Prior knowledge:
The protein is of the alpha+beta class and about 210 residues long. It has 5 helices and 7 strands; from the N terminus they run βαββααβαβββα. A 7-stranded antiparallel sheet has the order 1-3-2-4-5-6-7.
Amino acid sequence: MSREPRILSASAPAQPSDDSAADMVASTLTAIESQLGEAQGWDLPPRLFALRLQPPGVRVDFIPEALWNPAGINPADALGHHAETLPPVPPLLVPGVVHEDSVFAVGFMFEGWSKPKNVELPRELRTLRNCGERVLHLLPDRQEIRIVQAVDLNQRAFHMVRVRGGQPRLSVAGRKDALETEGTIPDALSRFVHAFRTGLAQQVKYPAPAPQM
């Protein structure tokens, strides 16, 4: 993957809200999934990135996988291991303001498998899942999906999912019909973006975005 940052000019959201910062993140994630995901096809490697405000667009700093997953393990586990080196996010935060050239969100785009709503896991797969194993890739009726998750500096979670051959669905925490965002990846992104907000990303061993070359 190229270490060079990209500047994206995201279009206005289809349904703008009174929260311009959230709309900016949502529009940028939509552009990332469309231009750097769907337009490039499937079977792509996962991508960890930080978003910086650089008017008139948004700068996307991709972090090479070799920096955050040198062991080549499951990407979610790799992010979780890095997050454990950072302090947890406090339960209460003073709302922050997006400043030019500051990191205002950290995101992750990856591919995986999902189970159609009307399909039940076979008993043997349920047993494996209950033992902590990942099993959806073993399901005959599995669906291939692309997911983009992000957390902004105010700890608002964003979740986009596209089933292969379908249209993407984006949800923002706190809004109507928001998707579930709990799990290893959003928890790790929460710690990463908080580290940037507080300056801890410069003080701990953290895979910071690669400089422009």
